[in-house]
Amino acid sequence: MALKKDKDLKIYSSIGEVAKMFGLNESTLRFWEKEFDFIHPKTNDRGIRFYKKEDIESVRLVHYLVKEKGMTLAGARQKLKENKANTIREEEIVHKLKKIKEELLSLKNAFDAINPVE
């Protein structure tokens, strides 16, 4: 069995960590949990939230619709109700393209550092 990458070894993330990932307040995440029934992190007996990878992907989907596409919560719920599978695929493609863009910009910056334009 192959060893997993370090970033994959962590099973749970705190609400603070997830909020930071998306540039959100923790209160926004708690509100989204009430608005979208597919965001349901585990909680312990003290009410501390623990987000699994699947929960983070759900937050990413809502973030994409509400913060990136500018939809209202009602609009996001409706879009997911109408065709969740296509919406998930669309968000995954956009997410992958953003990662590619980041990598390309990183390569460009490294190249520019080696070969400065005069």
Tell me what the structure shows.
With 118 residues, the chain is mostly helical. The protein has a single domain, classed as Multidrug-efflux Transporter Regulator, Chain: A, Domain 2. Helices cover 68% and strands 3% of the residues. The chain is built from 5 helices and 2 strands. Strands 1-2 form a two-stranded antiparallel sheet. A hairpin with a 5-residue loop joins β1 and β2. α4 crosses α5 (73-114). The longest helix has 42 residues, at 73-114.
Give the SSE layout.
Blueprint: H1 6-9, H2 15-22, H3 26-35, E1 42-43, E2 49-50, H4 53-68, H5 73-114
Antiparallel strand pairs: 1-2
Helix pairs in contact: 4-5
Number of H- or I-type helical stretches = 5
**CATH topology label:** Multidrug-efflux Transporter Regulator, Chain: A, Domain 2
Strand order of the largest sheet: 1-2
Rounded to the nearest angstrom, the distance between the terminal CA atoms is 51 Å
Alpha-beta content class: mainly alpha
**Poorly predicted runs:** none
Report the CATH C-level class: Mainly Alpha
CATH architecture classification: Orthogonal Bundle
What's the order of the H and E elements?
HHHEEHH
Strand content: under 5%
Anisotropy-based shape:
globular
What is the count of structural domains?
1
In total, the number of strands is 2
Biggest sheet overview = 2 strands, antiparallel
Radius of gyration: 18 Å
Mean pLDDT: 90
Helix content: 55-70%
List keywords for this structure.
118 residues; mainly alpha; Multidrug-efflux Transporter Regulator, Chain: A, Domain 2
